[in-house]
Amino acid sequence: MSSKRSTFLISALVFGFAFLYVPILLVMIYSFNEGKLVTVWAGFSTKWYVSLFSNDGMIDAAWNSLRIGVMSATLALALGTPAGLVMSRFGRFKGRTLFSGMIAAPLVMPEVITGLSLLLLFVTLEQMIGWPAGRGLSTITIAHTTFCAAYVAVVVQSRLSGMDTSVEEAAMDLGAKPAKIFFVITLPMILPALLAGWLLSFTLSLDDLVIASFVAGPGSTTLPMKVFSSVRLGVSPEINALATLIILAVSVMIVIASLMILRSERMRSRASAGADAQH
Amino acid sequence: MLVSEAVLERVHEDVHKTQPWNNPDAVPYIRFENVTKKFGDFYAVDDVSLDIYRHELFALLGGSGCGKTTLLRMLAGFEEPTSGKIYIDGVDMAGVPAYERPTNMMFQSYALFPHMSVEQNVAFGLVQDGVSRSEIKELVAEMLGLVQMSKFAKRKPHQLSGGQRQRVALARSLIKRPKVLLLDEPLGALDKKLREQTQFELVNIQEKVGTTFVMVTHDQEEAMTMASRIAVMNEGVINQTGTPFELYEYPNSRYTANFLGQVNLIEGVLVDDDEKYAVIKSDEAGCEIYIDHAVQGHEGMTFWVALRPERLRITKEAPKETKYNCVSGKVEEIGYLGGISTYHVRLESGKRIKVTEPNSTRQIEPRYTWEDTVWVSWEAGAASVLNK
């Protein structure tokens, strides 16, 4: 009975993972294909990687994406952290549910709608106050900041809600004023969560195609946009090489981010377990 | 024999020094004046007035939700009273934020800063005050010496045991030499053995530094061991304030009698009240209880007689005098605790009386066994009479 069930479970596991990862694996394998045809194996070669790095359009787009990612992740951190702080430390205030709902809304909003509404906002702003003049890197950065800030706020809030408020009270009791408490006590304690939030935001910004397409202007093509447009002209093995690199970069960052979240969780549970174990 | 006036005077002075609460001229160091704290419609603290004197180790004792922690947090400045006034050393604390009060607090969870070393934790208060670096170093070393944690100065809190964390928390809260040290269940997170040892250490440290301690605890044993005086709290109100001796021997209510130690409460009606004695007739006990002092009340009033289990005698034969203070019943439960044995005796009325006896000699067989008929008796001076 038990061996029967385990066979079933194992095959379910294998099929599940195969469904998720075989396509990705195929892309990785075919990025080392010698031939020009994407679907026919013609021997091992790294020539598509070489050609990728000599493709100026691709490199420019990658550079754009990197800059937008760093900028919007940093801005998202600056905006999302106070929002998370307010949600977990302000106690009950009127419209709290509305506020937290509105912060979480960008997480579930269809990207097309976010993109379109931001485009309308930028155009209106340009007509009214002349800024932002045209669309480009800065508009994409602002757009990415809006939905990344929501992720940061959620990560920071969950970290703070699990934190013992008496640590902050102890700092106040010992003579530290509220602003100082935030920078000297609260901030260092939530640092792992902040780094995780930054990495998550950076990855989300790097991935985004839809919103960027809406608010991009001439000369601000991001990597996903470039890939999408070149795929429409026909899939070249070069794209496979690029996809392999992106997958690697993104997985490394996701792994680091989740390790950081895990570490801060563990430190928190160890700190409280130490006190509880004595009961 | 005549005692000279001078000697009497000195004795009086001594009492006033060690027991300022018995000195009508003593000025309280901490004063709660009709303090009330409401959370929504709930009265956490209800019209509490309380004086605490300098150098006291004062304990607020009560079950969870009795308002003791709220009272402490109002002293620290984490909560503002809904109404009433709080004075520390004569200064009104209204509107003074926690970071400017002359109090420091030791938290139940210790609330150490997890990202700082032991040394940095202890130094934190001095750093906020802008004390020079060399002075901080000196004071931190001295304080860590006092709590015997010098060896662990470079460690992080998560590398310490519960007892070590407790010491660091104490050092951190004492280093600014606060006028008042507030302790929220200071030993609550330690195991029993360590707790007993730490109780005396805390008292020693308090005597050494001379700071006024105000402690919150739910553990009556801890309060009795450590405190100079105790306030027993229940539902936001102080039930009784006094020294451990006063509270144990002269409780003013069934609540206090029950909370401190163990007690048998016997309900009865006053039948005879004289200047020198009183008699209470109890149907519950099935006997008349003779009290060796007058009871403030009129005949026919209901009273409760509080009898401590260790003040009761248990015998197989009926005592010589069985008119008063004597009941008989069957042994229902026996608890052997090593040092003492406890017996639950069931009276005819169904009432159970608890008696404890010291095991001063080694006895292979218990003196009494289940279903034995025994007599329980007590001295006239053993009982306290309660009217609420």
UniProtKB/TrEMBL annotation, chain A:
Bilayer disposition of the protein: Multi-pass membrane protein
Localization terms from the record: Cell membrane
Coiled-coil regions listed: none
Keywords of this entry: Cell membrane, Membrane, Transmembrane, Transmembrane helix, Transport
Superkingdom: Bacteria
PANTHER family listed in its UniProt record: PUTRESCINE TRANSPORT SYSTEM PERMEASE PROTEIN POTI
Similarity section: Belongs to the binding-protein-dependent transport system permease family. CysTW subfamily.
Protein name in the entry: Spermidine/putrescine ABC transporter permease
Gene source species: Thalassospira tepidiphila MCCC 1A03514
Lineage, opening ranks: Bacteria, Pseudomonadati, Pseudomonadota, Alphaproteobacteria, Rhodospirillales
From TrEMBL, chain B:
PROSITE patterns: ABC_TRANSPORTER_1, ABC_TRANSPORTER_2
Its EC number(s): 7.6.2.11
Extent of the signal sequence: none
SUPFAM superfamilies on file: MOP-like (SSF50331), P-loop containing nucleoside triphosphate hydrolases (SSF52540)
Catalytic activity: ATP + H2O + polyamine-[polyamine-binding protein]Side 1 = ADP + phosphate + polyamineSide 2 + [polyamine-binding protein]Side 1
GO molecular function: ABC-type polyamine transporter activity; ATP binding; ATP hydrolysis activity
Top enzyme category: translocase
Keywords, alphabetical: ATP-binding, Cell inner membrane, Cell membrane, Membrane, Nucleotide-binding, Translocase, Transport
GO cellular component labels: ATP-binding cassette (ABC) transporter complex
Subunit structure: The complex is composed of two ATP-binding proteins (PotA), two transmembrane proteins (PotB and PotC) and a solute-binding protein (PotD).
Function: Part of the ABC transporter complex PotABCD involved in spermidine/putrescine import. Responsible for energy coupling to the transport system.
Family: Belongs to the ABC transporter superfamily. Spermidine/putrescine importer (TC 3.A.1.11.1) family.
Name the UniProt record assigns to this protein: Spermidine/putrescine import ATP-binding protein PotA
Organism: Thalassospira tepidiphila MCCC 1A03514
Biological classification of the source: Bacteria, Pseudomonadati, Pseudomonadota, Alphaproteobacteria, Rhodospirillales
Gene for this chain: potA
